[in-house]
Amino acid sequence: MKPILILTALEVERQAIEKHLTNIETENHPATGTDYKKGEYIKGDGTAVSVIVGRTDQTNVNASLETERALEYYKPAYIFFSGVAGGLKDVGVGDIVIGQNVIGIERGKEKKDTFFPRPQFGASSYELERLASNYSTSQLWKNRAKELLDAEFNPEIKVFTGTIASGEKVDASIESDLHKRIEQNASHALAIEMEGLGFLEVCRTRPTVKSLLLRGISDMVEDKTTMDSKGSQPYASQNVSAFLFGVIDNINFGNEQSETPTSKLTEIMTKLYPGGLRENGIWENAGGNLALIPLAQSGKGQWVEAIRILTRGGGGNITAKTLIEAVLQDYAQNIDLLALYKSL
After folding, report:
1. How far apart are alpha carbons 16 and 96 in whole angstroms?
2. In terms of Cα–Cα distance, which of 38, 47, 42, 126 is closest to 76?
3. Mean pLDDT throughout 191-213?
4. Which of 6, 53, 113, 317 is most enclosed, with most CB atoms within 10 A?
5. pLDDT at res. 108
6. Is the model more confident about 183 or about 126?
7. How crowded is the C-beta side of 341, counted as CA atoms within 13 Å?
8. What is the widest separation between alpha-carbon atoms in the chain?
9. Distance CA 250, CA 168 (A)
10. Which residues form the Nucleoside phosphorylase domain (predicted)?
């Protein structure tokens, strides 16, 4: 069984992960000397799983570099990014956000008095996102959440699934230009952080590696200093790491080799084209008709629905084969695509 790879940005986040592991040893990358912690996690059914924990440091640039390095070295089947984030809407300190997708908020064109956004997108694996969402409503998690709860922060620990905003700056004031930009261009985002886009951008190049972004809310925009002084970062790190290992408990590792071509295609398309069917004109380039697909949803949602329709013979003059052929025009060397194409 391949190891599970877990990345964090801060040391407090890594320490929270390590509390769930036994037999921890330090392992160094042979070329760069990058340090990783290697340990074992014992699942609820008694199965031992090898876990590698790495720390990227802050910013999307660092996250992308370290994600690429770790993926290439360990070649895992599953990779997670776990850590804290600032809350933007609906959430409270200690809550958990399952990162269905991430939006990069700082890319764009700045003119005299106007910023024209050119957002980037990333998406977690559909399979892991759904697994995490289902776990969040289970009695097992509800019981665990009661054990973790510190009522000084909030009366309960809630779990949300949605969009996370990602940039290179800490949003510490609702009066800041950054915050106003978020409200204008990413008003649906539940939380803000600095690594998720870099993480998922690298994961998209390996679409059959299952990836998931999880965040624990450590503060809201205006109360960061106050919450930090109360220990909100260790608290949020504790909560999100416990949730993560609950998700891992529910992964059926024996099912890795039985994934269907349809599920593989969905995974690949949501990773390579997280913006949806319109991105790069991919659906129409493959012979598809956009008018036949419900587009009033996230990019990931579009792909899930489109592949479902495609497998039933709909969606226009398009098949799985013509779709992959069109994608290969953009990603000619992608080994996951080539392997899937040969299997059809």
Report:
1. 15
2. 38
3. 91
4. 6
5. 60
6. 126
7. 16
8. 61
9. 33
10. 3-246
